[in-house]
Amino acid sequence: MIPPPLSRHELVLAALCVLFNSVVMLGGWLLFREGALVVDGRPLGWRWLLDALVLGLVMDFAMYVTHRLAHVEPFYRWVHGIHHRYEHPRPLTLFVLHPIEVLGFGGLWVAVLCTHAFSLGGMLLYLSANTLFGVLGHVGVEPLPDGWARWSVLRRIGTSTFHARHHQYHSTNFGFYTAFWDRLFGTLDPSYEETFARPPKPKERPSSS
Ligand SMILES: [Zn+2]
Ligand SMILES: [Zn+2]
Predict the structure, then answer these.
(1) Cβ atoms within 10 A of the Cβ of 41, count?
(2) N or C: where does the chain have the smaller number of CB atoms within 10 Å of the terminal CB?
(3) Domain containing 76: what range?
(4) pLDDT average per 10 residues of sequence, the chain (209 residues)
(5) Looking at the domain assignment, is residue 33 inside a domain?
(6) What is the model's pLDDT at position 94?
(7) β-sheet bridge partners, residue 178
(8) Among all ligands shown, which has an atom nearest to the Cα of 70?
(9) Is 190 inside any structural domain?
(10) What's the CA-to-centroid distance between 13 and ligand 1, angstroms?
(11) What are the two backbone dihedrals, phi and then psi, of residue 137, each rounded to the nearest 5 degrees?
(12) Which ligand approaches the C-alpha of residue 76 most closely?
């Protein structure tokens, strides 16, 4: 499917997203300067990987919860619904967010960093993975092999199809990096594994909220 041309609305919101992310960075730097946010500057080692894993697990759960809350009215209509105007996402859609959501995610990230002296390398690893998952979730095609969602470990990791289904049906697949919380709380799209990497048939889908 050939995507429609970019609208001015998308470009303005994406630019605002970058701007408000800079505001978050400034807030984090001020907290760092005041000593409320401590960074461990240790050199490359196993602790980088451990910190990145801890940050990923904590943020995955926190974002699952906040994402479900973002679908509650009137927040959905006024804030998160802007991101859901795009049934067929593309990479730029990752940045098409209401500024309140940008500040919310950034605030959550900075708040988690204030709880512990994470290593700088661990933070950078996590942020790199976050960008990778974000782009993958909005890339518009599934680059992974068809059998991915049927492998016992791999099917628990978030994919392009996983987030694309959320853009299509809204009431399933609230996770970002993993499908773990959706499986646990019963919000995983029931056809996800069966229709992985294939466009679903809308008429066969349950109605969404
Ligand atoms: Zn999205
Ligand atoms: Zn959503």
Answers:
(1) 8
(2) N
(3) 8-27+46-204
(4) 79 94 95 93 89 96 95 94 84 90 95 95 95 87 76 80 87 92 92 73 49
(5) no
(6) 87
(7) 157
(8) 2
(9) yes
(10) 14
(11) -65, -20
(12) 2
